[in-house]
Design a protein that fits this description.
Layout: H1 2-23, H2 51-62, E1 65-70, E2 73-78, H3 81-90, H4 102-108, H5 122-138, H6 147-165, E3 168-169, H7 172-188, H8 197-213, H9 219-226, H10 230-233, H11 237-263, H12 272-282, H13 290-304, H14 306-321, H15 323-336, H16 352-365, E4 374-375, E5 380-382, E6 385-387, E7 392-395, H17 398-401, H18 444-461, E8 462-465, E9 477-478, E10 484-485, E11 490-494
Parallel strand pairs: 2-7
Antiparallel strand pairs: 1-2, 3-11, 4-7, 5-6, 8-11, 9-10
Helix pairs in contact: 4-11, 6-7, 6-18, 7-13, 7-14, 8-11, 11-13, 14-15, 14-16, 14-18
The structure holds protoporphyrin IX containing FE.
Protoporphyrin IX containing FE binds near residues 374 and 441.
Amino acid sequence: MFLMIVFLSCGTVSLFLLYHALISMVRPKNFPPGPVGLPFVGSLHYIAPTFNKNIQQMANVYGKIFSVKLKSMNFVCLCDYDLIKEYMVDNPKPFAMRPKLFLYELMRGPGLDGIVVSPYGAKLAAHRKLFHAFLRKHGCGDKLFCKVEQELPYFVANIQDQLKLTSTFDPTSAFEYAALNVIACYVFGNRYNYGDDKFKMLLNHNKQFFQKVENVYSPAVTLVSLIPHLHNLWLPKAAKDLKECCRAIEDFISCEVEYHKSTLDAKNPRDIIDMYLNEMSHSRSEHFTDKGLKMTIMDFFQAGTETTSVTLKWAVIYMVNNPEIQERVQQEIDKVLGLHKLPTYEDRLKMPYTEATILEVQRKANIAPIGVLHSTSESVKLGGFDLPKDTCIIPLYHSIHYSQKHWKNPNQFDPENFLDLNGKVGTRPAFMPFGGGLRICLGMNIAKQELFLFFAAMLQHFKLLPPTGILKLDEQYVNGGTLHPKEYNILLEDRCKS
Ligand code: HEM
Protein backbone atom coordinates (compact mmCIF):
# COMPACT_ATOMS: atom_id res chain seq x y z
CA MET A 1 0.00 0.00 0.00
CA PHE A 2 2.77 2.37 1.01
CA LEU A 3 4.66 1.62 -2.21
CA MET A 4 1.49 2.22 -4.18
CA ILE A 5 1.04 5.68 -2.61
CA VAL A 6 4.71 6.53 -3.29
CA PHE A 7 4.36 5.31 -6.86
CA LEU A 8 1.16 7.30 -7.50
CA SER A 9 2.60 10.45 -5.92
CA CYS A 10 5.77 10.21 -7.99
CA GLY A 11 3.69 9.64 -11.11
CA THR A 12 1.49 12.67 -10.44
CA VAL A 13 4.50 14.91 -9.74
CA SER A 14 6.25 13.62 -12.88
CA LEU A 15 3.19 14.28 -15.02
CA PHE A 16 2.84 17.75 -13.50
CA LEU A 17 6.52 18.50 -14.19
CA LEU A 18 6.33 17.05 -17.69
CA TYR A 19 3.29 19.19 -18.49
CA HIS A 20 5.00 22.36 -17.27
CA ALA A 21 8.25 21.43 -19.02
CA LEU A 22 6.49 20.87 -22.35
CA ILE A 23 4.18 23.85 -22.19
CA SER A 24 7.23 26.13 -22.35
CA MET A 25 8.38 24.43 -25.54
CA VAL A 26 5.25 23.70 -27.56
CA ARG A 27 3.97 26.24 -30.07
CA PRO A 28 0.36 26.64 -31.25
CA LYS A 29 -0.52 25.56 -34.81
CA ASN A 30 0.59 27.85 -37.68
CA PHE A 31 2.40 30.06 -35.16
CA PRO A 32 5.44 32.20 -36.12
CA PRO A 33 8.76 30.32 -35.89
CA GLY A 34 11.27 30.91 -33.11
CA PRO A 35 13.87 29.30 -30.88
CA VAL A 36 13.03 26.11 -29.02
CA GLY A 37 12.36 27.05 -25.42
CA LEU A 38 14.03 25.53 -22.38
CA PRO A 39 11.81 23.29 -20.26
CA PHE A 40 9.89 25.34 -17.63
CA VAL A 41 11.43 28.63 -18.73
CA GLY A 42 10.72 28.97 -22.44
CA SER A 43 12.74 31.30 -24.64
CA LEU A 44 11.98 34.85 -23.52
CA HIS A 45 15.53 35.09 -22.19
CA TYR A 46 16.72 35.19 -25.83
CA ILE A 47 15.34 38.71 -26.20
CA ALA A 48 15.24 40.16 -22.65
CA PRO A 49 16.68 42.29 -21.17
CA THR A 50 18.29 44.18 -24.06
CA PHE A 51 15.24 43.90 -26.30
CA ASN A 52 16.40 46.31 -28.95
CA LYS A 53 19.60 44.49 -29.91
CA ASN A 54 18.46 40.95 -29.22
CA ILE A 55 15.20 41.11 -31.17
CA GLN A 56 17.10 42.46 -34.17
CA GLN A 57 19.59 39.59 -33.93
CA MET A 58 16.80 37.02 -33.67
CA ALA A 59 15.03 38.59 -36.66
CA ASN A 60 18.16 37.91 -38.72
CA VAL A 61 17.74 34.21 -37.91
CA TYR A 62 13.95 33.70 -37.87
CA GLY A 63 12.61 36.50 -40.07
CA LYS A 64 10.61 39.67 -39.46
CA ILE A 65 7.93 37.88 -37.43
CA PHE A 66 9.00 35.29 -34.87
CA SER A 67 7.90 33.99 -31.50
CA VAL A 68 9.36 33.36 -28.05
CA LYS A 69 7.77 31.77 -25.01
CA LEU A 70 7.65 32.42 -21.29
CA LYS A 71 6.15 29.27 -19.82
CA SER A 72 2.67 29.04 -21.34
CA MET A 73 2.72 32.66 -22.55
CA ASN A 74 3.27 33.23 -26.26
CA PHE A 75 5.10 36.37 -27.38
CA VAL A 76 5.30 37.44 -31.03
CA CYS A 77 8.01 39.90 -32.09
CA LEU A 78 7.43 42.11 -35.11
CA CYS A 79 10.37 43.67 -36.93
CA ASP A 80 8.77 45.25 -39.96
CA TYR A 81 6.71 48.36 -40.70
CA ASP A 82 3.99 46.52 -42.65
CA LEU A 83 3.41 44.02 -39.85
CA ILE A 84 3.32 46.70 -37.15
CA LYS A 85 0.93 48.76 -39.29
CA GLU A 86 -1.24 45.66 -39.86
CA TYR A 87 -2.00 45.33 -36.15
CA MET A 88 -1.72 48.95 -34.99
CA VAL A 89 -3.54 50.71 -37.79
CA ASP A 90 -5.38 48.32 -40.14
CA ASN A 91 -6.96 45.99 -37.57
CA PRO A 92 -6.33 47.43 -34.10
CA LYS A 93 -9.29 46.11 -32.09
CA PRO A 94 -8.24 42.48 -31.51
CA PHE A 95 -4.77 43.72 -30.55
CA ALA A 96 -5.76 46.39 -28.04
CA MET A 97 -5.49 44.31 -24.84
CA ARG A 98 -2.60 44.47 -22.40
CA PRO A 99 -1.03 41.20 -21.25
CA LYS A 100 -1.36 40.21 -17.61
CA LEU A 101 2.21 40.42 -16.40
CA PHE A 102 3.54 39.77 -12.93
CA LEU A 103 5.39 43.08 -13.03
CA TYR A 104 2.19 45.04 -13.61
CA GLU A 105 0.47 43.43 -10.61
CA LEU A 106 3.55 44.03 -8.51
CA MET A 107 3.41 47.74 -9.28
CA ARG A 108 -0.37 48.18 -9.22
CA GLY A 109 -1.71 45.53 -6.93
CA PRO A 110 -4.63 43.35 -8.03
CA GLY A 111 -7.15 44.79 -10.48
CA LEU A 112 -4.83 46.57 -12.91
CA ASP A 113 -6.70 49.85 -12.52
CA GLY A 114 -5.79 53.09 -14.25
CA ILE A 115 -4.94 53.34 -17.94
CA VAL A 116 -1.53 52.06 -19.08
CA VAL A 117 -1.84 48.43 -17.98
CA SER A 118 -5.62 48.29 -17.90
CA PRO A 119 -7.34 45.76 -20.19
CA TYR A 120 -9.13 47.15 -23.26
CA GLY A 121 -12.85 47.60 -22.68
CA ALA A 122 -15.56 49.94 -21.43
CA LYS A 123 -13.63 50.98 -18.32
CA LEU A 124 -10.53 51.98 -20.29
CA ALA A 125 -12.66 53.77 -22.90
CA ALA A 126 -14.38 55.77 -20.13
CA HIS A 127 -10.99 56.81 -18.70
CA ARG A 128 -9.57 57.81 -22.08
CA LYS A 129 -12.76 59.78 -22.84
CA LEU A 130 -12.54 61.65 -19.54
CA PHE A 131 -8.94 62.63 -20.19
CA HIS A 132 -9.73 63.83 -23.73
CA ALA A 133 -12.63 65.87 -22.36
CA PHE A 134 -10.26 67.42 -19.82
CA LEU A 135 -7.71 68.31 -22.49
CA ARG A 136 -10.40 69.82 -24.71
CA LYS A 137 -11.33 72.06 -21.80
CA HIS A 138 -7.91 72.77 -20.37
CA GLY A 139 -5.53 71.99 -23.21
CA CYS A 140 -3.26 74.31 -25.07
CA GLY A 141 -6.15 75.57 -27.17
CA ASP A 142 -6.91 77.79 -24.22
CA LYS A 143 -3.97 80.09 -23.52
CA LEU A 144 -4.89 80.48 -19.85
CA PHE A 145 -4.49 76.80 -19.27
CA CYS A 146 -1.44 75.99 -21.30
CA LYS A 147 0.55 74.39 -18.51
CA VAL A 148 3.64 73.91 -20.65
CA GLU A 149 3.88 77.56 -21.65
CA GLN A 150 3.43 78.50 -17.98
CA GLU A 151 6.44 76.39 -17.05
CA LEU A 152 8.82 77.87 -19.65
CA PRO A 153 10.12 80.92 -17.72
CA TYR A 154 10.93 78.72 -14.70
CA PHE A 155 12.68 76.20 -16.94
CA VAL A 156 14.90 78.88 -18.51
CA ALA A 157 15.59 80.57 -15.14
CA ASN A 158 16.58 77.20 -13.65
CA ILE A 159 19.26 76.72 -16.33
CA GLN A 160 20.42 80.34 -15.97
CA ASP A 161 20.77 79.84 -12.19
CA GLN A 162 22.89 76.74 -12.72
CA LEU A 163 24.99 78.62 -15.24
CA LYS A 164 25.83 81.22 -12.60
CA LEU A 165 27.50 78.47 -10.59
CA THR A 166 29.29 76.67 -13.41
CA SER A 167 29.50 76.79 -17.19
CA THR A 168 29.66 72.98 -17.40
CA PHE A 169 26.16 71.70 -17.24
CA ASP A 170 24.21 68.46 -16.88
CA PRO A 171 20.75 69.25 -18.27
CA THR A 172 19.03 66.27 -16.63
CA SER A 173 17.57 68.03 -13.63
CA ALA A 174 16.23 70.99 -15.64
CA PHE A 175 14.30 68.62 -17.91
CA GLU A 176 13.12 66.41 -15.05
CA TYR A 177 11.86 69.37 -12.99
CA ALA A 178 10.03 70.88 -15.94
CA ALA A 179 8.43 67.61 -17.13
CA LEU A 180 7.33 66.69 -13.59
CA ASN A 181 5.84 70.10 -12.94
CA VAL A 182 3.81 70.04 -16.15
CA ILE A 183 2.18 66.77 -15.09
CA ALA A 184 1.74 68.07 -11.52
CA CYS A 185 -0.10 71.07 -12.99
CA TYR A 186 -2.49 68.90 -14.97
CA VAL A 187 -3.28 66.50 -12.14
CA PHE A 188 -2.86 68.57 -8.95
CA GLY A 189 -3.95 71.92 -10.37
CA ASN A 190 -0.85 73.98 -9.74
CA ARG A 191 2.88 73.97 -10.30
CA TYR A 192 5.37 73.70 -7.46
CA ASN A 193 8.37 75.91 -6.83
CA TYR A 194 11.46 73.83 -7.55
CA GLY A 195 12.66 74.28 -3.95
CA ASP A 196 9.32 73.19 -2.43
CA ASP A 197 9.62 70.20 -0.06
CA LYS A 198 6.60 68.48 -1.58
CA PHE A 199 8.04 68.90 -5.07
CA LYS A 200 11.36 67.44 -3.92
CA MET A 201 9.52 64.47 -2.40
CA LEU A 202 7.57 63.85 -5.61
CA LEU A 203 10.73 64.20 -7.67
CA ASN A 204 12.53 61.76 -5.42
CA HIS A 205 9.72 59.17 -5.64
CA ASN A 206 9.68 59.52 -9.41
CA LYS A 207 13.46 59.18 -9.77
CA GLN A 208 13.48 56.17 -7.47
CA PHE A 209 10.77 54.53 -9.56
CA PHE A 210 12.76 54.81 -12.79
CA GLN A 211 15.92 53.56 -11.09
CA LYS A 212 14.11 50.55 -9.63
CA VAL A 213 12.45 49.69 -12.95
CA GLU A 214 15.93 49.21 -14.44
CA ASN A 215 16.63 46.34 -12.02
CA VAL A 216 13.59 44.24 -12.73
CA TYR A 217 15.03 42.22 -15.58
CA SER A 218 17.22 40.31 -13.11
CA PRO A 219 17.09 36.47 -13.14
CA ALA A 220 15.57 36.49 -9.64
CA VAL A 221 12.61 38.64 -10.73
CA THR A 222 12.16 36.50 -13.85
CA LEU A 223 12.05 33.42 -11.62
CA VAL A 224 9.32 34.90 -9.45
CA SER A 225 7.30 35.89 -12.48
CA LEU A 226 7.59 32.32 -13.77
CA ILE A 227 6.18 30.74 -10.64
CA PRO A 228 2.85 32.23 -9.64
CA HIS A 229 2.32 32.45 -5.87
CA LEU A 230 6.06 32.22 -5.15
CA HIS A 231 6.02 35.96 -4.66
CA ASN A 232 3.61 35.51 -1.75
CA LEU A 233 6.42 33.67 0.03
CA TRP A 234 9.48 35.44 -1.30
CA LEU A 235 10.19 38.56 -3.31
CA PRO A 236 13.64 39.40 -4.68
CA LYS A 237 15.01 42.73 -3.49
CA ALA A 238 14.60 44.43 -6.88
CA ALA A 239 10.90 43.51 -6.96
CA LYS A 240 10.37 44.44 -3.31
CA ASP A 241 12.03 47.83 -3.86
CA LEU A 242 9.86 48.55 -6.88
CA LYS A 243 6.71 47.55 -5.02
CA GLU A 244 7.58 49.75 -2.04
CA CYS A 245 8.41 52.64 -4.32
CA CYS A 246 5.00 52.39 -6.03
CA ARG A 247 3.25 52.24 -2.65
CA ALA A 248 5.11 55.42 -1.58
CA ILE A 249 3.92 57.19 -4.74
CA GLU A 250 0.39 55.92 -4.11
CA ASP A 251 0.51 57.34 -0.56
CA PHE A 252 1.64 60.70 -1.90
CA ILE A 253 -1.22 60.70 -4.42
CA SER A 254 -3.71 59.60 -1.72
CA CYS A 255 -2.91 62.74 0.31
CA GLU A 256 -3.54 64.93 -2.74
CA VAL A 257 -6.81 63.12 -3.48
CA GLU A 258 -8.01 63.61 0.11
CA TYR A 259 -7.14 67.31 -0.09
CA HIS A 260 -9.05 67.60 -3.36
CA LYS A 261 -12.09 65.84 -1.88
CA SER A 262 -12.17 68.26 1.02
CA THR A 263 -11.87 71.36 -1.19
CA LEU A 264 -13.83 70.27 -4.27
CA ASP A 265 -16.06 72.83 -5.96
CA ALA A 266 -17.93 70.55 -8.36
CA LYS A 267 -18.86 73.43 -10.67
CA ASN A 268 -15.26 74.57 -11.07
CA PRO A 269 -13.01 71.54 -11.47
CA ARG A 270 -9.39 72.64 -11.10
CA ASP A 271 -7.62 69.65 -12.57
CA ILE A 272 -7.81 65.98 -13.54
CA ILE A 273 -8.43 64.85 -9.96
CA ASP A 274 -11.46 67.16 -9.65
CA MET A 275 -12.85 65.98 -12.98
CA TYR A 276 -12.43 62.38 -11.91
CA LEU A 277 -14.09 63.04 -8.52
CA ASN A 278 -17.01 64.71 -10.31
CA GLU A 279 -17.33 61.70 -12.56
CA MET A 280 -17.34 59.41 -9.50
CA SER A 281 -20.20 61.29 -7.92
CA HIS A 282 -22.25 62.28 -11.00
CA SER A 283 -22.25 59.26 -13.20
CA ARG A 284 -21.99 56.82 -10.27
CA SER A 285 -20.30 54.67 -12.87
CA GLU A 286 -18.56 51.60 -11.52
CA HIS A 287 -15.69 52.49 -13.87
CA PHE A 288 -14.50 55.38 -11.70
CA THR A 289 -13.21 54.33 -8.29
CA ASP A 290 -10.79 55.61 -5.66
CA LYS A 291 -8.19 53.06 -6.68
CA GLY A 292 -8.76 53.85 -10.38
CA LEU A 293 -8.17 57.54 -9.67
CA LYS A 294 -4.88 56.90 -7.85
CA MET A 295 -3.61 54.54 -10.53
CA THR A 296 -4.56 56.97 -13.30
CA ILE A 297 -2.56 59.72 -11.61
CA MET A 298 0.34 57.31 -11.15
CA ASP A 299 0.13 56.52 -14.88
CA PHE A 300 0.50 60.17 -15.81
CA PHE A 301 3.64 60.53 -13.68
CA GLN A 302 5.19 57.27 -14.81
CA ALA A 303 4.30 57.53 -18.51
CA GLY A 304 4.59 61.29 -18.83
CA THR A 305 7.78 62.47 -17.13
CA GLU A 306 10.83 60.36 -17.97
CA THR A 307 9.70 59.93 -21.61
CA THR A 308 9.78 63.69 -22.13
CA SER A 309 12.93 64.45 -20.17
CA VAL A 310 14.91 61.62 -21.80
CA THR A 311 13.88 62.82 -25.29
CA LEU A 312 15.13 66.31 -24.40
CA LYS A 313 18.42 64.84 -23.14
CA TRP A 314 18.88 63.23 -26.55
CA ALA A 315 18.00 66.51 -28.22
CA VAL A 316 20.96 68.16 -26.45
CA ILE A 317 23.32 65.40 -27.62
CA TYR A 318 22.23 65.68 -31.25
CA MET A 319 22.53 69.49 -31.15
CA VAL A 320 26.04 69.35 -29.67
CA ASN A 321 27.10 66.72 -32.20
CA ASN A 322 25.54 68.54 -35.16
CA PRO A 323 26.46 72.22 -34.64
CA GLU A 324 25.37 73.24 -38.14
CA ILE A 325 21.84 71.96 -37.40
CA GLN A 326 21.84 73.72 -34.03
CA GLU A 327 22.81 76.95 -35.77
CA ARG A 328 20.05 76.59 -38.36
CA VAL A 329 17.46 76.05 -35.61
CA GLN A 330 18.74 79.12 -33.80
CA GLN A 331 18.57 81.23 -36.96
CA GLU A 332 14.92 80.26 -37.34
CA ILE A 333 14.22 81.00 -33.67
CA ASP A 334 15.93 84.40 -33.93
CA LYS A 335 13.90 85.26 -37.02
CA VAL A 336 10.52 84.25 -35.60
CA LEU A 337 10.89 84.94 -31.87
CA GLY A 338 14.01 87.02 -31.34
CA LEU A 339 15.95 86.49 -28.14
CA HIS A 340 13.39 87.44 -25.52
CA LYS A 341 9.84 86.44 -26.50
CA LEU A 342 9.34 82.90 -25.25
CA PRO A 343 7.84 80.49 -27.81
CA THR A 344 4.17 79.52 -27.86
CA TYR A 345 2.93 76.29 -29.37
CA GLU A 346 1.30 78.26 -32.19
CA ASP A 347 4.77 79.53 -33.17
CA ARG A 348 5.71 76.08 -34.42
CA LEU A 349 3.64 76.79 -37.54
CA LYS A 350 6.24 79.43 -38.44
CA MET A 351 9.18 77.28 -37.34
CA PRO A 352 9.17 74.14 -39.53
CA TYR A 353 12.91 73.47 -39.21
CA THR A 354 12.75 73.54 -35.40
CA GLU A 355 9.71 71.26 -35.39
CA ALA A 356 11.33 68.89 -37.90
CA THR A 357 14.45 68.78 -35.71
CA ILE A 358 12.57 67.68 -32.61
CA LEU A 359 10.69 65.03 -34.65
CA GLU A 360 14.05 63.77 -35.92
CA VAL A 361 15.26 63.60 -32.29
CA GLN A 362 12.31 61.34 -31.52
CA ARG A 363 12.98 59.12 -34.54
CA LYS A 364 16.69 58.73 -33.93
CA ALA A 365 16.51 58.40 -30.13
CA ASN A 366 13.68 55.84 -30.39
CA ILE A 367 13.32 55.98 -26.60
CA ALA A 368 10.49 53.46 -26.23
CA PRO A 369 12.01 50.54 -28.20
CA ILE A 370 9.08 48.17 -27.72
CA GLY A 371 6.46 50.65 -26.48
CA VAL A 372 3.96 49.15 -24.05
CA LEU A 373 3.05 45.57 -24.93
CA HIS A 374 -0.31 44.77 -26.51
CA SER A 375 -2.01 41.37 -26.46
CA THR A 376 -4.78 39.70 -28.46
CA SER A 377 -8.36 39.56 -27.16
CA GLU A 378 -9.34 36.78 -29.61
CA SER A 379 -7.78 34.43 -32.19
CA VAL A 380 -6.57 36.54 -35.07
CA LYS A 381 -4.37 36.36 -38.19
CA LEU A 382 -1.18 38.41 -38.48
CA GLY A 383 1.39 38.20 -41.26
CA GLY A 384 -0.28 34.97 -42.46
CA PHE A 385 0.11 33.26 -39.05
CA ASP A 386 -2.59 32.32 -36.54
CA LEU A 387 -2.26 33.99 -33.16
CA PRO A 388 -4.43 32.56 -30.38
CA LYS A 389 -6.16 34.77 -27.77
CA ASP A 390 -3.74 36.20 -25.16
CA THR A 391 -0.74 36.27 -27.49
CA CYS A 392 1.51 39.09 -26.41
CA ILE A 393 2.82 41.40 -29.18
CA ILE A 394 6.30 42.94 -29.07
CA PRO A 395 6.78 45.55 -31.82
CA LEU A 396 10.38 46.54 -32.49
CA TYR A 397 10.13 50.25 -33.25
CA HIS A 398 13.76 50.25 -34.37
CA SER A 399 12.61 48.35 -37.46
CA ILE A 400 10.36 51.29 -38.34
CA HIS A 401 12.45 54.25 -37.25
CA TYR A 402 15.66 52.88 -38.78
CA SER A 403 14.14 51.24 -41.86
CA GLN A 404 16.20 51.70 -45.05
CA LYS A 405 12.91 51.46 -46.94
CA HIS A 406 11.43 54.53 -45.26
CA TRP A 407 14.39 56.81 -44.45
CA LYS A 408 17.17 57.98 -46.77
CA ASN A 409 20.01 57.66 -44.24
CA PRO A 410 18.44 56.23 -41.12
CA ASN A 411 21.66 56.29 -39.09
CA GLN A 412 22.29 59.94 -39.79
CA PHE A 413 20.64 62.77 -37.82
CA ASP A 414 18.77 64.73 -40.49
CA PRO A 415 15.75 67.00 -39.83
CA GLU A 416 15.13 67.05 -43.61
CA ASN A 417 13.55 63.64 -43.06
CA PHE A 418 10.47 65.49 -41.84
CA LEU A 419 10.38 68.35 -44.36
CA ASP A 420 8.61 68.21 -47.72
CA LEU A 421 9.81 69.87 -50.91
CA ASN A 422 8.23 73.18 -49.85
CA GLY A 423 10.09 73.16 -46.52
CA LYS A 424 6.87 72.31 -44.61
CA VAL A 425 6.64 69.62 -41.92
CA GLY A 426 5.18 66.53 -43.63
CA THR A 427 3.64 63.42 -42.09
CA ARG A 428 5.67 60.22 -42.14
CA PRO A 429 3.80 56.93 -41.72
CA ALA A 430 6.92 55.07 -40.56
CA PHE A 431 7.13 57.26 -37.48
CA MET A 432 5.41 55.92 -34.38
CA PRO A 433 7.15 57.24 -31.26
CA PHE A 434 3.79 57.29 -29.46
CA GLY A 435 2.71 53.78 -30.50
CA GLY A 436 -0.58 53.52 -32.31
CA GLY A 437 -4.04 52.07 -32.70
CA LEU A 438 -6.55 52.15 -29.90
CA ARG A 439 -3.84 52.41 -27.22
CA ILE A 440 -1.91 55.30 -28.77
CA CYS A 441 -0.18 57.44 -26.14
CA LEU A 442 -2.83 59.38 -24.29
CA GLY A 443 -0.44 62.21 -23.46
CA MET A 444 0.80 62.61 -27.05
CA ASN A 445 -0.46 66.18 -27.47
CA ILE A 446 0.98 67.30 -24.14
CA ALA A 447 4.28 65.61 -24.99
CA LYS A 448 4.45 67.30 -28.41
CA GLN A 449 3.92 70.68 -26.77
CA GLU A 450 6.55 69.99 -24.13
CA LEU A 451 9.15 68.80 -26.61
CA PHE A 452 8.70 71.71 -28.98
CA LEU A 453 8.46 74.42 -26.32
CA PHE A 454 11.27 73.30 -24.00
CA PHE A 455 13.54 72.59 -26.97
CA ALA A 456 12.86 75.95 -28.65
CA ALA A 457 13.21 77.90 -25.39
CA MET A 458 16.50 76.17 -24.59
CA LEU A 459 18.04 76.87 -28.00
CA GLN A 460 16.69 80.41 -27.96
CA HIS A 461 18.62 81.16 -24.76
CA PHE A 462 21.68 78.93 -24.92
CA LYS A 463 24.31 77.74 -27.31
CA LEU A 464 25.11 74.08 -26.55
CA LEU A 465 28.76 73.03 -26.85
CA PRO A 466 30.77 69.91 -26.03
CA PRO A 467 32.90 70.06 -22.88
CA THR A 468 36.50 71.23 -23.38
CA GLY A 469 38.67 68.61 -25.05
CA ILE A 470 35.75 66.53 -26.38
CA LEU A 471 34.53 66.71 -29.97
CA LYS A 472 31.33 64.66 -29.77
CA LEU A 473 29.09 63.29 -27.02
CA ASP A 474 28.53 59.54 -26.79
CA GLU A 475 25.39 58.46 -28.70
CA GLN A 476 25.29 54.91 -27.30
CA TYR A 477 22.14 54.28 -25.30
CA VAL A 478 21.64 52.64 -21.92
CA ASN A 479 18.73 50.20 -21.54
CA GLY A 480 16.18 50.94 -18.85
CA GLY A 481 12.49 51.85 -18.73
CA THR A 482 13.45 53.89 -21.82
CA LEU A 483 16.56 53.96 -24.01
CA HIS A 484 18.40 56.83 -22.37
CA PRO A 485 21.80 58.40 -23.00
CA LYS A 486 24.81 57.92 -20.75
CA GLU A 487 25.40 60.74 -18.27
CA TYR A 488 27.11 63.73 -19.85
CA ASN A 489 28.07 67.35 -19.29
CA ILE A 490 28.02 70.15 -21.82
CA LEU A 491 29.21 73.74 -21.98
CA LEU A 492 26.58 76.43 -22.22
CA GLU A 493 26.83 79.96 -23.54
CA ASP A 494 24.03 82.37 -22.66
CA ARG A 495 23.01 83.74 -26.09
CA CYS A 496 21.27 86.73 -24.51
CA LYS A 497 24.56 87.87 -22.96
CA SER A 498 27.00 87.26 -25.82
C1 HEM B 1 8.10 61.97 -25.50
C2 HEM B 1 7.13 61.64 -24.71
C3 HEM B 1 6.32 60.38 -24.77
C4 HEM B 1 6.51 59.23 -25.50
C5 HEM B 1 7.64 58.92 -26.47
C6 HEM B 1 5.43 58.33 -25.18
C7 HEM B 1 5.27 57.07 -25.73
C8 HEM B 1 4.22 56.22 -25.43
C9 HEM B 1 4.06 54.91 -26.01
C10 HEM B 1 4.98 54.26 -27.04
C11 HEM B 1 2.93 54.37 -25.46
C12 HEM B 1 2.34 52.99 -25.75
C13 HEM B 1 1.33 53.08 -26.87
C14 HEM B 1 0.80 51.73 -27.29
O1 HEM B 1 0.47 50.92 -26.43
O2 HEM B 1 0.73 51.48 -28.51
C15 HEM B 1 2.38 55.33 -24.53
C16 HEM B 1 1.24 55.14 -23.79
C17 HEM B 1 0.77 56.05 -22.87
N1 HEM B 1 1.27 57.30 -22.60
FE1 HEM B 1 2.87 58.17 -23.50
N2 HEM B 1 4.61 58.93 -24.26
C18 HEM B 1 5.10 60.18 -23.99
C19 HEM B 1 4.57 61.12 -23.13
C20 HEM B 1 3.42 60.96 -22.38
C21 HEM B 1 2.85 61.96 -21.53
C22 HEM B 1 3.38 63.38 -21.35
C23 HEM B 1 1.76 61.38 -20.92
C24 HEM B 1 0.77 61.96 -19.94
C25 HEM B 1 0.44 63.18 -19.84
C26 HEM B 1 1.65 60.03 -21.42
C27 HEM B 1 0.66 59.15 -21.06
C28 HEM B 1 0.50 57.89 -21.63
C29 HEM B 1 -0.57 56.98 -21.24
C30 HEM B 1 -1.64 57.23 -20.18
C31 HEM B 1 -0.42 55.83 -22.03
C32 HEM B 1 -1.26 54.57 -22.01
C33 HEM B 1 -2.38 54.62 -23.06
C34 HEM B 1 -3.25 53.37 -23.03
O3 HEM B 1 -2.79 52.33 -22.55
O4 HEM B 1 -4.37 53.41 -23.51
N3 HEM B 1 2.68 59.81 -22.31
N4 HEM B 1 3.18 56.47 -24.54
